[in-house]
Amino acid sequence: MGLTRRGFLSGTGGFTAALAMPGAIAAEGGTPVALVARERSHRLPGCEAPSALWSYGDAWPLELRVKRGRTFVAGLRNELKEHTTIHWHGVRVPHAMDGVPYMTQDPVLPGQSFRYEFAPPDPGTFFFHPHCDTVTQLGRGLAGVLIVEDPRVEGLFDLDRTLVLKDWRVRPDGGFDAFMTDAGAGKAGTFGQLRTVNGGAAPTIEAAPGARVRLRLVNLDPTRIPVLGTRGAAVTIIATDGNACDPFPAADWRLGPAMRADLAFTIPAKPGADVAIEDVWGAKPFLLARVVASAAPVRIAAKPPAMRLPTADLPNPVLRGAERLEFSLATGHVDPALEAWAKESGMSLDSLCLSQKIFWSINKQAWPGMSHDKKVAPLAELKSGRTYVAELFNTTPHTHPMHLHGHTFRVQRASKSKLRPHWADTVLWRRTNAWRSPSWPGSPATGCSTVTLSNTRKPG
Ligand SMILES: [Cu+2]
């Protein structure tokens, strides 16, 4: 499907909600937003020279704001030297818009365009990223935030900001290091050397005393799992992976790769009051953002509305009689056939959307290279509209995220930790404490999270 440049119209400047991220693009009324994937230089904090980022637009991070249920059109143009696609993470899009190369669409080749068009059914905080050579493309920054606005909550918050968390595999000279090492990929991941929030140092955001603040945390890092800590106000989580929930304290929430958490709090009504959001996982807390009360007059609200979002409009799973599924995660191996083929052909499989190595398997099955000509049998076939209960066993010493495309599921409980039931599209497959247990799966020594799945993909 081709798109001409004339068909593109960037929405820059059309956005009027002044309290959102500066530079956010409003994508309204079916007017296509141009997403031109190419190299752009951007100076990361502490680097002597700009880095060659890959991005969809001049701003990093790029934020698109769309309205729930309204048709949204994005014209992707690939000006990279390799294949790409866009996956709309967490959005219940029709299958053909899901962006998985060889499965839902052909990869978008260099010089080609692809038109993504869908009406996002759920409000919330989402993001989009390539589903080709993802480690490199995302590693270089190719991703964007998609905010699906809910007209019902207009005016509920005085300030609505997005915080994109991402580490970079960057050297002080601005050059990138290999985005994935075998040692990292087979274990807890390949960590970046530079941590950023919105591509820079942790921001200090000014707000009026007494202001009601919404912060949308997006973990764009494929590896790091921050544990939230808060200071200076009662900070609650009002949405998990974009889906509204009963507010609960944000402290100790683990924000795994690709996960989102919407935070809400009221700034104390005292000029200079200071609220901090931190990652308290390490020995020393890492600041993610500070919100400081300005010298502006105290906001006067006779009876401020409760900072909660309308209940998520998702089909509730029906547990009675639901079929039970088991998925067991194990470390994998390199497929010798694929390795031999790659060696013979002298090609980089990564650049063709075909990952070369196998580091993980589910139910002892791996998908070598996620190749289109090597499709494996499905692990399970789920019928539309039915509830399934999936138990996820992790036989490895590493916590690993699991994401389901195009669906929202309910996380029920975990065997090794206290877990609050919540809606999600990404869940952490907790590592075990005694992972060498020979009796997996199902051994009590094996970490396990229970997830209810119900088919929530909107037909399209
Ligand atoms: Cu994703």
Written overview of the protein:
This protein has 460 residues and is mainly beta. It folds into three domains: 5-151, Immunoglobulin-like (Sandwich); 159-293, Cupredoxins -  blue copper proteins (Immunoglobulin-like), CATH 2.60.40.420; 323-454, Immunoglobulin-like. Helix content is 4%, strand content 35%. The protein has three helices and 27 strands. The chain has helices at 134-139, 182-185, 336-345, and strands at residues 25-26, 33-42, 51-55, 62-67, 72-78, 87-89, 113-118, 124-129, 144-149, 159-168, 194-197, 204-207, 212-219, 228-231, 236-240, 243-249, 260-266, 274-279, 286-293, 323-331, 360-362, 387-394, 400-403, 409-414, 422-424, 426-429, 447-454. The protein has a six-stranded mixed beta sheet, with no helix packed on it. A six-stranded mixed beta sheet has the order 21-20-22-27-24-25, with no helix packed on it. A hairpin with a 6-residue loop joins β18 (274-279) and β19 (286-293). The longest helix is centred in the last third of the chain and has 10 residues, at 336-345. The chain is globular and about 70 Å long. 43% of the residues are buried. The structure holds copper (II) ion.
